[in-house]
Amino acid sequence: MAHAVVAGAGIGGLTAALALARNGWQVTVLEQAASIEPVGAGLAVAPNALRALDMIGLGDEVRKLSAIQGEAGLRRPSGRWLSRTTAEDAAARYGDSIVLLTRSALVGILAARLPRGALRLGTRAESADPRTGLVTLATPAGGTETIQADLVVAADGIRSRTRAALFPGHPEPGYAGVTSWRALVPFPGPVGASETWGAGLVFGVMPLAGGQVYCYATAPVPAGLRAESEKDELIRLFGRWHDPIPALLAAAEPGAVLRHDIYSLDTPLPALHSGRIALLGDAAHPMTPNLGQGACQAIEDAVVLARHVSPGGGPAPDLTAGLAAYSRERLARTTPIVRRSRLVGRVSGWRAPLAVALRDGALRAAGMLGPAVAVRQFDDVFRWPA
Predict the structure, then answer these.
(1) Residue 359 has pLDDT above 70, yes or no
(2) What are the tens digits of pLDDT across the range 55-76?
(3) 174-264 has which CATH code?
(4) In sequence order, which residues have a C-beta less than 8 Å from that of residue 385 and are 6 or more positions away?
């Protein structure tokens, strides 16, 4: 049985392991952390990613644990709507709505389906030979060992050691100019989904199942800055914005507020593979979160990779051709999404009063044409596979 080693037990790595296992591969998943409790808070799973999860038999399980995004749209800090859509609008156009759940819930679903003994925690992939597939590991005891793999899937994140080794002259992901905050807030009252754009500032609200709300925010600051209290910093920036933002910030636990600077790979890689190694997710195409497609594209990567290296329901006799096809297909798909997400981030970050007024006016004019206009802006993202 052909053996695939997956470096990284995030959403993309776990999905890849499951997709490969369903196609007859023996899989080993390496995770350097002592547990796979994910860093993060909430997650929007768009119709394209739900379709990918359907391909490995998990779409309905994700839907059952999720909240359906009801009415949603863009607002001003005053609360005035710029544009609105509903779950029914999205479902009618794409066959599915966007579903909302915690990142830990999705990781739990994926990890529970791994073959017995496939996951190795506290074990880091130090290096992988693209020619032979030999993977060198750092073990929990402080030693090293090697594993022979027919395929190596590098899902080792935005600071991927594997990407740097395969493409040493390629630019690293660059700071996008904004920092982000995320928090899960217990909030039993009814809350609608929305994203509010101010002068350079963004605040998003996503209601989840179980009386929780996922809040996220961005602000333009130099990289590396941190506040003594990130909750207090959010209150300083957003505490006078429309309801329910002040109440959500008041209800947030200070220790539950996460802050991370945002990075993007603006120059696409020449390929998403080399030899026996395939790059996936943030290791392949780090993007800003403005389209909500980071995890969604990693899920797509995983099922497409498994299809190309297992065309007959088992390992491909010509792995080189399969990986080349994966690179071509995924670069064509992800490159415009990375660029569009970056563009939306720049527009949402405009601070000059005239630019903000023109932006908001254009969004409101488009919103007045009806929800169908707003929804179909996502046709090229949500309608996958074409």
Answers:
(1) yes
(2) 999 999 999 988 877 778 999 9
(3) 3.30.9.30
(4) 51
Query: What is the SS3 assignment for the chain?
Result: CCEEEEECCCHHHHHHHHHHHHCCCEEEEEECCCCCCCCCCEEEECHHHHHHHHHCCCHHHHHHCCEECCCEEEECCCCCEEEEECHHHHHHHHCCCCEEEEHHHHHHHHHHCCCCCCEEECCEEEEECCCCCEEEEECCCCCEEEEECCEEEECCCCCCHHHHHHCCCCCCCEEEEEEEEEEEEECCCCCCCEEEECCCCEEEEEECCCCEEEEEEEEECCCCCCCCCHHHHHHHHHCCCCCCHHHHHHHCCHHHCEEEEEEECCCCCCCCEECCEEECHHHCCCCCHHHCCHHHHHHHHHHHHHHHHCCCCCCCCCHHHHHHHHHHHHHHHHHHHHHHHHHHHHHHCCCCHHHHHHHHHHHHHHHCCCHHHHHHHHHHHHCCCC
CATH superfamily of 3-67+101-172+266-348: FAD/NAD(P)-binding domain (3.50.50.60)
Inform me whether the pLDDT recorded for 250 exceeds 70: yes
- For range 338-343, the mean pLDDT: 97
